[in-house]
Write a sequence for this structure.
């Protein structure tokens, strides 16, 4: 029998709370494991391999993770999405299944990713976003924060903001967007970061440092200091995983503006709009 | 020692997923138990009793539950709210603490309550609202649904929509509002019900019946049939608890329009607005 098959692109959303991140690890409930197991069940093969665009950490959420896999099933894309929807648990959903070019590699082909980091700014702590945001009721110096954010975009060596587990060959990445916005009424705040790639823990270390700047622990020039010194100990703490969302992965053949469609901002059960 | 004390009103929000409802039950994690335990810890007394306006079932959420309690602590309202915030778990938050008149009874004094029931209308099932909404991707006949909803408001005997566990002396209640709305883009739908009181399971049985009407299993006149016959077996199934929210309790001294501020509609991480 000829195993012809095809390569598919999978667009996935997940609540990362109860996953040990994307990457398969022995004995752990990971997104990759659940995706591969479902594909294997459909095909009746031992192991189907799925590659993810972003290796989200334990507890990190995704609105637009992209993966690819080579499959042999003759189910068309639509039927395959339905089958995956039935096999996946409620905290992992298949947004789309698309037949891709045979050479498609969700990770290597990605040219940009957008992450968001969400703050719960309510004084009491909103019980409905506690899985999805960091509760941060403290006063924030917006001028200092904006000053710090303005120092980030560019092609830089991010070693000072990389986690110890980072195994990347190079720590140079291009960041094209770094901003912070609050909703009217200021019950939620959202950081947005877009770049051609991110090191392990980079967004969470950036957020931890930016929050320290906003609280007055460091001046905005601390950003330059960490970048220049490449010294992780000069940066702020790693912000918790639960506020972090992978919202979009972009590929070179996709035109137009990135679809940063704002889902994390609107997550909380907020005021009527 | 004179136990003078004061009566307080507590406004509470909770994610009901991991609570066995409001009411204290031996060996169960209930909202009443957690509230009373926290108040007892603050006072160093054996038992402080808290009365809730609505006895929400297991899995039902609250954006605006109201409770009252008689306390002796000399912490002012603001400090007491902070203390409760520190003692409560993340899925239960104290929105406000207010000193009330000594005769205040959160349950007996309530003149109206508003419940919402939320549907997830996405084709794939949104992983971020699965604790807070019923996934209902099926086509809905809006004309039939609106016809059925229009038959509900009024002072009626709701015995046919009451759960078996209902212990109310009378099954007559006045319903003043019954409507269904979908967001633009129709990724979420919300039922709203306001009335002077609700029987056990009443909202969930109404929703189960209304969804059956919307799917064409019954005609809208089935509503009149259940009301007239008082026969629970003529109604639809009990909709799951997770979609139900107690959004507001109103008291006679509160003026103006009810604060149905739309939080459940905006729960999902939706499109940018």
């Amino acid at each position: 029998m000829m195993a012809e098959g095809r390569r598919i692109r999978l667009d996935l959303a997940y609540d990362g709370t109860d996953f040990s991140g994307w990457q398969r690890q022995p004995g752990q409930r990971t997104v990759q494991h659940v995706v591969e197991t479902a594909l294997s069940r459909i095909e009746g093969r031992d192991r189907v391999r799925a590659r993810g665009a972003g290796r989200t950490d334990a507890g990190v959420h995704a609105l637009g993770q992209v993966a690819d896999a080579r499959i042999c099933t003759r189910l068309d894309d639509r039927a395959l999405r339905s089958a995956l929807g039935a096999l996946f648990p409620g905290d992992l959903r298949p947004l789309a299944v698309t037949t891709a070019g045979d050479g498609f590699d969700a990770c290597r082909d990605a040219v940009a990713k957008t992450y968001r980091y969400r703050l719960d700014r309510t004084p009491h702590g909103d019980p409905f976003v506690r899985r999805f945001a960091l509760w941060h009721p403290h006063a924030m110096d917006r001028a200092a924060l904006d000053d710090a954010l303005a120092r980030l975009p560019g092609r830089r060596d991010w070693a000072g903001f990389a986690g110890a587990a980072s195994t990347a060959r190079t720590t140079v990445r291009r960041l094209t967007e770094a901003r912070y916005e609050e909703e009217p009424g200021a019950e939620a705040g959202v950081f947005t970061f877009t770049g051609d790639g991110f090191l392990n823990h980079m967004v969470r270390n950036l957020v931890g440092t930016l929050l320290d700047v906003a609280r007055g622990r460091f001046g905005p020039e601390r950003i330059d200091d960490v970048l220049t010194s490449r010294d992780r100990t000069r940066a702020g703490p790693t912000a918790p995983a639960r506020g972090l969302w992978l919202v979009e992965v972009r590929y070179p053949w996709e035109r137009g503006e990135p679809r940063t469609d704002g889902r994390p901002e609107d997550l909380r059960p907020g005021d009527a709009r």
Summary: Chain A touches chain B at residues 13-15, 61, 63, 81, 85, 90-95, 124-128, 130, 132, 261-273 (CB under 8 Å). Confidence is low (pLDDT under 50) at residues 258-273 of chain A. Residues 12 and 94 of chain A are 5 Å apart (CA to CA).
